[in-house]
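Q: I'm building a small set of examples for a reading group on sequence design. Run inverse folding on the following structure and report the sequence directly after it, with nothing in between.
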């Protein structure tokens, strides 16, 4: 099976916890998985990479965590060709911030799509108001996402 890179944007560690929790689940399905908390454009240019999975919190007024902000803005300005890439989004937010709920995930989803990447499945939006532990809904979602990725690989 192919390689998956999990790109993490986190302030307090919740998105990293999600990445660390789902990594062995993906490895059990035969994927080679690497987690990066300092993503760069080079992470996306690796042609051996089958998919990127973003696990990102939303902070402030719909903003990216500091460790993810530079990556997003560099990608948005660079206009990288991503047609070789498949991706998924796990977005963490708090619905009490109604207008900006999970905006970081929505923004990175839009940029990946704009530059030709193929999204696998629907993005997962995890609401901190409903889930104290974000790893639980992520664990439920990741199996379906991996199955959808495998179906696309077979085509």
């Amino acid at each position: 099976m192919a390689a998956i890179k999990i790109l993490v944007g986190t302030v307090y560690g919740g998105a990293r916890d999600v990445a660390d929790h789902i990594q062995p689940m993906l490895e059990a399905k035969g994927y080679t998985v690497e987690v990066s908390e300092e993503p760069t454009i080079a992470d996306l240019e690796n042609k051996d990479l089958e998919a990127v999975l973003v696990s990102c919190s939303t902070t402030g007024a719909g903003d990216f965590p500091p460790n993810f902000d530079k990556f997003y803005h560099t990608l948005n300005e660079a206009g990288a060709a991503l047609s070789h890439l498949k991706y998924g989004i796990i977005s963490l937010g708090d619905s009490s911030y109604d207008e900006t709920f999970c905006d970081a995930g929505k923004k990175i989803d839009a940029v990946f799509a704009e530059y030709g990447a193929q999204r696998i499945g629907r993005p997962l939006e995890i609401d901190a108001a409903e889930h104290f532990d974000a790893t639980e809904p992520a664990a439920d979602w990741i199996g379906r996402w991996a199955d959808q990725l495998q179906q696309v690989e077979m085509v």
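Strands lie at 3-9, 32-36, 49-57, 86-93, 118-119, 124-127.
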